[in-house]
Amino acid sequence: MPRRTTNSRPAAVVVIGASAAGLFAAAALAEFADVTIVERDVLPDGAEPRRGVPQARHAHLVWSGGVRAFNDLLPGVTDDVLAKGGRLVHIMGDMVSRAPNEVWFRRFTATHHRNLVCSRDLLDSVLRARVRALENVTIRENTTALGLVGDATRVTGLRVSSSGDERILTADLVIDASGRGSRSPAWLEGLGLPKTPEREVNAGVAYATRRYRAPGTSADIRFPLVNVQANPAKAPGQGGIILPIEDNQWIVTLAGTRGGEPTDDPDSFEDFARHLGDPVIGHVLKDAEPLGDIATTRSTSNHRRYYEKTRRWPDGYVVLGDAIAAYNPVYGHGLSVAAQCAIAVRDVLRTTSTTSITAPGTAKRLQRAAARPVAAAWDLAVGQDAFYPGATDTPPTALERLLARFVDQAVATGARNPRALGALLDVMSLEKPATRLFSPDMLVPMLFGPRRPHLTGAPLSEQEWKSVS
Description:
The protein is an alpha+beta fold. Helices cover 31% and strands 23% of the residues.
């Protein structure tokens, strides 16, 4: 599809941040415009850490709804990750997972759902390489976004600084993909717009992560992802995950809410793992060799800005990804939502022949479209975290408590029935809306059985146990 033009020139888009959300936005908008990404860091050439992604050392995964979105925006990008050592992990066949209600999932293989698993450094390097290869995308590194140019009716560019020199990048559309630290609320108020409604739900989760060399012969048998999720009904909530990644390494991330946080003390890391609600992670790590120090973070709150609800919105400006809503990383939805937001923006521009980037009202339509995938992930995260003490000033309503009990029952049903599991994973994987949980695939097994007994422990096979010994 040809790029849209403005006054006989290609439309110009400026994206703030070479984050995953920024890269996806650039890939989506490159179909319609010349795109410039403004990035304050100097980006690494390969799979190396960078300052602007401090959470990269922790466990990341991409749900199947995100995998689809990745390949829609950048066809074949998943294959690029797999070629460098990433994995597509079958949910639940290649997973050992305990739900927040302390029910162990059976390792059913009938569903189609797959998680993409690798280090964040590897994933980012592949995404950067693919976006750099787009002929009409330019990345301006070591360049800081200082503020918007324009007024309350239209944004016309971005003021930036590079090596001490300030300049203005004129744009038909500016996209904020700068993440949790987004300055959009202050910038928009500076243009004379009203304060954006916001909500925060903070369970007080702290993370501690360490890499290990895959022990024994576990790297030879596609050792499963092991996940013990925290139980909101038993504060402090504590959990952890073993994520087998490239180069025969494991990322092990432990988490705990207020009063039960892990630390960066190497001597207490594995002990913490053994004292989760189930000790399986600690037992599996018994003979594993640690690689490097422990990384910690407390920047884990769910924080949403409701830009789509504002009555006044400037043309020429859109906010995407974590800059709209950031989630507790334990749910693994951030990357998937970032890609789905970019697709939502692209599809609005594709499907209406009269729509152009510069047309009045287009930016507001794009902002509303981007809010839809955000809302789905937000409801999933807040539906759990709001039950932790001190998480929010507004306690869960009677309806939210009723829905939480229903979700617990849906999880318990999916843990024992493959048909119900498929419906549950459709929602958890961000493939279908939450109404899928009320379909016959879930309700019939929930109400009429057959009801297998719940598993009494982690469903690791004998071969898997032997491989880590």
